[in-house]
Amino acid sequence: MLPSVRVVVLNYNGGDLVLRCIESLRKTDWPADRLDIVVVDNASTDGSAEYLNRTFDDITVMFNTHNDGFPANNLAMRSIDDHAYVALVNPDTTVDPGWLRPLVETMEADEALGGACPRLLLEPRFVDVAIDAPTHRAPGDDRDLGVRLTGVRVDGVDRIRHLQVVENGWGAELSGAGRHHWLSNDAVVAVPLDPEATAPSKVEVQLVVDPPKDVRVGSTVVHVDDAPEWFEVDVEGEPYDVVNNAGSLLVEGGWGADRGLGERDGPEYDEPRDVFAWCGGGVLLRSTYLRDVGLFDERFFLYYEDTDLSWRGRAQGWNYRYVPDSLIRHVHAASTVEGSSMFVHFVERNRLLMLAKNAPVEFASRAYLRFVLSTLGIAREQIVRPLMRGSRPDLTTVLRRIRAFVAAVSLLPYAASQRRRLRRAQVVDDATLLAWQVPQP
Known about the structure:
Blueprint: E1 5-11, H1 15-25, E2 35-41, H2 48-55, E3 59-63, H3 74-77, E4 85-89, E5 93-95, H4 100-108, E6 113-122, E7 126-132, E8 147-154, E9 157-158, E10 164-175, E11 178-192, E12 203-208, E13 213-217, E14 220-224, E15 229-233, E16 243-245, E17 248-251, E18 255-258, E19 273-275, E20 282-286, H5 287-293, H6 305-315, E21 319-330, H7 341-358, H8 361-388, H9 396-410, H10 412-425, H11 430-434, E22 437-438
Parallel strand pairs: 1-2, 1-4, 2-3, 6-21, 17-22
Antiparallel strand pairs: 4-20, 5-21, 6-16, 6-20, 7-11, 7-13, 8-9, 8-11, 8-12, 10-11, 12-15, 13-14, 17-18, 19-21
Helix pairs in contact: 6-7, 7-8, 7-9, 7-10, 8-9
C-alpha cells in the first residue's frame, strides 16, 4: 500500500492563484484515500478560504485567527500521526500530476532523507532580450550603470514584476516611481510570457538614463534620455523555462539561496543530487524527521524559516535530496514583493537570527560585525557623501538595515536559549556543516 501524504497549502488572500493550486493538487497521480489536502488560511480577507471550503468537499480548510506568516504551516504539521509524509506547496504554484510519486520513491529508498525537493520552475516561460549600453558612475554610487529598465510589457500587459535579469544587472529596486532594474553593459533580461502563451506577439521595454546615451536593444540602437520611453523589441529564439529552486544552498557568510534561481532550465538540473537545504515553496518532508527536529520557528514569520529548519535537521544527521523528475511551477514573489521593505527587513533580520541559533559563535559574530560594517559603508555613500556635496541624502536603505539589526539583536536572548537546546541534540560537527558553503556569486 502506498504511504499516506498530507499536502499543506498556506493561504493568505490567495484569490485565483490558490484556487488554481488546489485544482492542480486534486489531479495528483496518487490514491485519493492516501492524499490529505489541507489549506491553512492565515486570516485572509478576500473570501478565498471560504470559497475553497464551500467548493471542495475533499479538502480541509483550517482557519487561523490571525496572520502568523509562513510558520502557520505548523497548524497542519502538528497532527500528522496518520501520515508518513507531509508536503508543503505554495498557494501560487501548480503541480504536475506526477509530481508526488518521484519524491515519495526517493524518500522510501533512503531512510536518512528528511526532505525531497522538486524541480521548481518559474511559471511563465521566458524569452531573452539583450540590452547593451555604455556605463557611467553616478555620484555616490560605485556601480557601473548602463541604463535603467523601468517597465516591460508583453502584448500590452505589464510583466516587470516577474522579469529576471540573466546577466549584468544590479538587482530589483523599488522607488517612488515603482519597480526598476539598473543594468550594466551587455545585459540580458529574461522577459516572462503569459502562462498560456507559446510566443509573444509584441515585447516592449521602458528605459531611462541620465546622462542620455545610445543603447542597443536587441538588434536596434535607440536613443535613451532622462524621460522614460517605451521601445519595441524584436525577440529571437524559442521560449524557455527558468529555474526557481533545485534545492537550496548555503552561501559563504551564512546566506541561504535557491540553487539555480534565474538560470535557464537544462541538463545541469536533470540529475538528482544532495543539497544543503530545502525550500518551503515545494518540498516533501518525512513525518519522523519533523517529530525529531521540530517544526518551523514561529519567531521568523517570513523567510529563512525553511533554511533554519533544514540546518537544524542537518545538525541532527538528516539529509536532503533534489529530485528532478518532480515538477512544480511557481509564480515567484506573488504574495510578497522581492525588494520591498518587508522583504528586506525579514530577510536581513532572520538570516542573523538563524546564524545566532545554528552557526558557530565565531561565525555568527563575524556575520553580525560584517552587517554593521556594511551598513556604515552604505551610510557613507548614501548619506555622508551627498551631504558633503550639498545634495539630499538617501536614508531609506540605512534605516531599513538599522531596524533589521536592532530587531535581530533584540532576539539574541531567545536565540541563545534555542542554541543551547540545539547544541545538545547536534550530532554533526560544525566543520562538516559549514563545508556545504558555496562561494558568493
